[in-house]
Amino acid sequence: MAAARTSLGRVLPGSSILFLCDMQERFRHSIVYFPQIVSVAARMLRVARLLQVPALLTEQYPQGLGPTVPELGAEGLQPVSKTCFSMVPTLQRELDSRPQLQSVLLCGIEAQVCILHTTLDLLERGLQVHIVVDACSSRSQVDRLTALARMRQSGAFLSTSEGLIMQLVRDAAHPKFREMGTLEDFLTPPSLYRSRRSLRSPSRTAGCWASSKARTPFSDESPALT
C-alpha cells in the first residue's frame, strides 16, 4: 500500500522544492514562447514564497549565456553557476541537507537538455519530479514535446502551474489563499497551444497563446504524449 501511495504524486509545501533552471538573457530570442515561460515560472516562484516552499536557481555558463532575466523576479535568490546540464551535481549539498524532501517542481529550459538531465538525476535519487509543462520550453516544439514524453516515460509527473498551485494550496480556506489575489491572478495562461498550421510553421505560433480553442501539446496532434 505504501508503494501505491508514493506513486500518486501528491505535492505538499513542507516536502517540496522549486527548481528554476537557466532562464537567462541569451535564450530570450531563441526559446519558443520564452516570455510566457518566464511569466509562468515567476508565478510559481511567487506562490512558492507565499507558501514557504524553498526555491533554487541555476544559470548555465553565465559568462557566455548571461544572467537570469529580471522578469523572473528572482531577487533574493542566489543563482548557482553550472556547466553540467543537470542541476543536481551543483545542488547536491542543498538536496542532501533536506531529508524531508519528496517532490521537486521543475521549471526552465531547455526541456530536452537541462530539464531532462535534471529529471533523470532526481528520479535516480528517489525523488518525485513534477514538470511544470507551461514553464518549460525549447528552441523547437519537436524537442519540447519529445522531451516531455521521455520524462513521463521515465516516471516524472507532468502538470500545469495551475494544477500544482492548487495541489499546494489544497483548500480555499488556506490562510494564504487570499494573499494570492483573485483566482485569475494566478491561473495558468494558455499553455503552449498550437494548431496544425502553427506546428508546421513555428514562426506563426505567437497568436496561439490567445486562442482558447487552440489545441494543446496533449492533443491528438501529439501521439508521442498519448
UniProtKB/TrEMBL annotation:
Q: Where is this region: Disordered?
A: 197-226
Annotated Isochorismatase-like domain residues:
16-162
So which domain of life are we looking at? Eukaryota
Return the InterPro entries for the record: Isochorismatase-like_dom (IPR000868), Isochorismatase-like_sf (IPR036380), Isochorismatase_domain (IPR050993)
Question: How does the annotation summarize its subunit structure?
Answer: Interacts with CDKN2A.
Which family is this sequence assigned to?
Belongs to the isochorismatase family.
Q: What is this protein called?
A: Isochorismatase domain-containing protein 2
Species of provenance: Marmota monax (Woodchuck)
